Amino acid sequence: MTILVTGATGNVGRQVVEHLVKRGADVRALVRDPSKADFPADVSVVQGDFLDVDSLRNAMSGVSTLFLLNAVVPDEFTQALIALNVARSAGIERIVYLSVIHADLYVNVPHFAGKFGVERMIEQMGFKATILRPAYFIQNDLTVKDVITGYGAYPMPIGPKGLAMIDVRDIAEIAAIELLRREQATEPLALDRINLVGPQTLTGTDIAAIWSDVLARPIHYGGDNTEGFEQNLKQFMPAWMAYDMRLMGERFLTDGMLPAAGDVERLTALLGRPLRSYRAFAAETVASA
């Protein structure tokens, strides 16, 4: 029985592969460029692309469980639907899909709306799936480390509602646990949705205060300007993506990313340990600089 991991060379996918291997799973990794596939020797690597149907058919042949992770790209929804249809044709029933928290709330944000559409298709197509809905990735803030340390400002538009930020390492481990739970079940398990959240819901000023403590100097929060956020992002990403991120930031300000009752306790029990905190991430980042 084989687990296929898509997005396997990305930050989450690579760690999912590693967790599965450590737990003795038979793992196949779908990659665009095999030269970047630095996996343990017993991982089967297959080259493919979500828009190359024949490559997907080859990759999914003989697979029992699928980890579906799509990058934020203009045709993300199309890519996911092709993958789901090929998976159904291949007889794959067991899926873990990486969506996003509040996909049904942030309806005007393109990559949220796309993921919610994929969730609906998973349900309508009758897949037995776990839909993982992560909040903001803590490690996203590595992209603004130099702004924090060099200019004394935390620039992300987090706002006053707060985000239940989660460490990418926790996301990957939970995904691996769910993949193995479905893979090892005698019968396909019922569809389930799990919010992936961190141990605290933090506002922009909360995060600035954490960095102030860790760096032992004042860091101020200055991130509510979503127009400026978009313009900064346009310096290193396509304009459509920068606008998508701006729309997401606007929903951060108005709605936040809040856990449901029992989310933290459920994840803690699933992992068998506490969730990693933002403060721990900040301290690790400073220590490794």
TrEMBL record:
Classification of source organism: Bacteria, Pseudomonadati, Pseudomonadota, Alphaproteobacteria, Hyphomicrobiales
Organism: Rhizobium ruizarguesonis
Gene3D superfamilies: NAD(P)-binding Rossmann-like Domain, UDP-galactose 4-epimerase, domain 1
Pfam family, one: NmrA
Domain NmrA-like, chain residue ranges per copy: 2-248
Signal peptide: none
Protein name: NmrA/HSCARG family protein
Listed PANTHER family: PRESTALK A DIFFERENTIATION PROTEIN A (PTHR43162:SF1), PTHR43162
